């Protein structure tokens, strides 16, 4: 009996010890300084965040675990009343099948509608999360539009240009659909998805695929340069400075952008045929200053840009669409989109 118990303890130790070590490593990488800043108390307050600055096997395992979990959660996510969730399947230019979701108003499955390409955030290496489906459902309902969210390949295994190509191939899918109102196509992205959205717009304008009615960039990643003051002022906020550096390293993976490609929005010299553009910066965000600079560069180039800075907001502040303060911000985005769609008529 004692020998049997001993064998069981040994077996349990063999199984549990690696899990314990992995858990300890992950806990040691939690960014407890996230709450060092005076965020708007009306917003949901961020909990301790994970600093993704590390470049080792534990970091990669943690990212893959997060992606497996989020893929399970988004698959199980149920659309709210009035919205229908459908599977997205798009053939990429290299033969890969891009997954994702389509959200549309109930009863409109066969109608031609305005359509939004939603490029989700997640530092290029994280997959779609339920918060992005929540936001997409609000847009689908309030704007009476179809929202297409591609699950593009992520940078841990598929660095630039693959995530960008997947999003652009999804826009081609939208453009070819008889259910798309081509005069009312919107391009939207948050965080790293904002970078992808900006570059999809730029490529779309260069290649003449279609004429977008509007693009909206929410606390977008716009520049690989690390000289902006907000990167230091809010270096331990919800998107830390060091994590930002590693994000670009993973995404570019040795590729050196030239400014003539579609990797770094801030490095473009011209913005021809650009649609109405909305850029939203969160005040207490490492990316705040680069967002303001990018909006300014587009405006100087003649783009009609609306720049909005949300006081006391942090990167990812809008994750809870049921929070009153968050909903006011989302409602203001919806008003802007409605005005842009009216101007496109």
> Which class of secondary structure composition applies to the elements?
alpha/beta
Count of helical regions: 9
- In CATH's first tier, which class applies? Alpha Beta
Q: Please tally the β strands and state the result.
A: 11
Average pLDDT for all residues: 92
Rg, nearest Å = 21 Å
Share of residues in strands: 15-25%
Structural summary, described in words:
- The termini are far apart.
- Strands 3, 4, 5, 6, 7, 8, 9, 10 and 11 form a nine-stranded mixed beta sheet that branches. Strands 1-2 form a two-stranded antiparallel sheet.
- The chain is an alpha/beta fold and 345 residues long.
- The model has no long low-confidence stretch (mean pLDDT 92).
- It has a single domain, classed as Rossmann fold (3-Layer(aba) Sandwich).
- The chain is 41% helix and 20% strand.
């Amino acid at each position: 009996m004692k020998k049997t118990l001993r064998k069981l303890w040994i077996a349990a130790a063999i199984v549990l010890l690696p899990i314990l070590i992995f858990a300890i490593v992950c806990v040691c990488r939690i960014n407890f300084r996230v709450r060092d800043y005076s965020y708007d108390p009306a917003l949901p307050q961020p909990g301790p965040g994970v600093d993704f600055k590390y470049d080792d096997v534990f970091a990669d395992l943690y990212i893959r675990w997060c992606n497996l979990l989020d893929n399970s959660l988004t698959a199980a996510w149920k659309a709210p009343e009035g919205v229908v969730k459908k599977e997205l399947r798009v053939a990429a230019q290299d033969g890969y099948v891009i997954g994702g979701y389509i959200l549309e108003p109930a009863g409109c499955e066969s109608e031609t509608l305005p359509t939004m390409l939603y490029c989700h955030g997640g530092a290029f290496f994280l997959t779609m999360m339920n918060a992005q489906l929540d936001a997409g459902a609000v847009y689908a309902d309030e704007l009476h539009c179809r929202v297409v969210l591609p699950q593009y390949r992520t940078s841990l295994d598929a660095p630039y240009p693959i995530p960008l190509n997947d999003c652009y191939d999804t826009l081609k899918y939208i453009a070819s659909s008889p259910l798309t109102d081509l005069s009312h196509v919107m391009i939207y992205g948050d965080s790293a998805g904002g970078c992808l959205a900006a570059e999809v717009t730029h490529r779309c304008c260069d290649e003449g695929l279609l004429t977008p009615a509007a693009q909206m960039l929410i606390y977008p990643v716009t520049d690989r340069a690390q000289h902006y003051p907000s990167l230091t002022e809010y270096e331990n906020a919800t998107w830390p400075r060091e994590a930002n550096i590693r994000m670009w390293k993973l995404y570019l993976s040795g590729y050196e952008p030239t400014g003539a490609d579609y990797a770094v929005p801030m490095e473009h010299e011209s913005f021809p045929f650009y649609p109405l553009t909305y850029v939203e910066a969160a005040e207490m965000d490492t990316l705040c200053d680069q967002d303001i600079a990018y909006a300014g560069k587009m405006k100087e180039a003649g783009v009609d840009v609306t720049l909005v800075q949300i006081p006391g907001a942090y990167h990812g502040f809008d994750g809870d669409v049921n929070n009153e303060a968050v909903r006011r911000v989302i409602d203001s985005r919806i008003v802007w989109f409605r005005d842009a769609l009216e101007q496109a008529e």
